[in-house]
Amino acid sequence: MENKTSLKIRNLVKYFHEPETFQVLKGVSFEVKKGEFLSIVGKSGSGKSTLLYVLSTMDTDYEGTLQINGDLLTGKTQNQLAAFRNEHIGFVFQFHYLLPEFSCLQNVMLPALKLGKYSTKEIEHKAYESLRLLDIEGQALKSANKLSGGQQQRVAIARALINNPSIIMTDEPTGNLDSKNTEAVLDIFRGLAKENGQTIICVTHDKDFANNTDRTIEMADGLII
Ligand SMILES: Nc1ncnc2c1ncn2[C@@H]1O[C@H](COP(=O)(O)OP(=O)(O)OP(=O)(O)O)[C@@H](O)[C@H]1O
């Protein structure tokens, strides 16, 4: 593992104001190294998803600072953040689920089409590479809603990889998977971290999964313990 910092947060504080003011993050600081596979665990309601949402740059309503690959992202405009995310972050989030009527190939191609850097032909080629890496290229032309949960999860990971992001963020990546598929996802993430130097940040309830990552951060009541 290289000793470069991939992500750094300092004194992250966040409040929700509905139905009443409530401090959900109470001063969270940590760093993640490039190529590190990090899990974030903690009881329900401890603030894990809220934290991940801030790290993903999608939530900008916080105090403190967020840096990714040395870039200070705190204070950037929504347009700047959207461009940054497309290029640097791959997401496997439940609310980013696959478009059911689209083929797996089309689903995987979408983030690269949005980035607008490559021709459709090149993107299709990259999408096939990504699907192959996840051992799911045989399903490329099927609609996403015709796949099993485990297969859909692989396609979602393939989609997160298409722009070759330096960081992959996921919320409950194995939430609906059986132990065989969980093991497969774990292997994929480990490989991406070790072989490609991609940083992986996972929020998970699965203790076994967390025990197989490089490092685990535990949250309780808006703080790291
Ligand atoms: N939009 C919101 N408005 C107000 N309160 C919220 C909002 N989103 C989350 N919360 C509250 O913030 C706290 C932390 O929520 P969060 O979803 O980050 O927890 P979590 O650790 O990810 O939980 P889980 O493991 O159940 O997903 C909870 O008490 C939750 O009810």
UniProtKB/TrEMBL annotation:
InterPro entries, A to Z: AAA+_ATPase (IPR003593), ABC_transporter-like_ATP-bd (IPR003439), ABC_transporter-like_CS (IPR017871), MacB-like_ATP-bd (IPR017911), P-loop_NTPase (IPR027417)
SUPFAM superfamilies recorded: P-loop containing nucleoside triphosphate hydrolases
GO molecular function: ATP binding; ATP hydrolysis activity; transmembrane transporter activity
Record GO cellular component, one term: membrane protein complex
Keyword Transferase: no
Entries under Pfam families matching the protein: ABC_tran (PF00005)
Keyword Disulfide bond: no
Gene3D superfamilies for this protein: P-loop containing nucleotide triphosphate hydrolases
The ABC transporter domain, residue ranges: 7-225
Keywords: ATP-binding, Nucleotide-binding, Translocase, Transport
Lineage: superkingdom: Bacteria
Coiled coil: none
UniProt family annotation: Belongs to the ABC transporter superfamily. Macrolide exporter (TC 3.A.1.122) family.
Protein name: ATP-binding protein
Naturally occurring in which organism (per UniProt): Marinilabilia rubra
Taxonomic lineage from the root: Bacteria, Pseudomonadati, Bacteroidota, Bacteroidia, Marinilabiliales
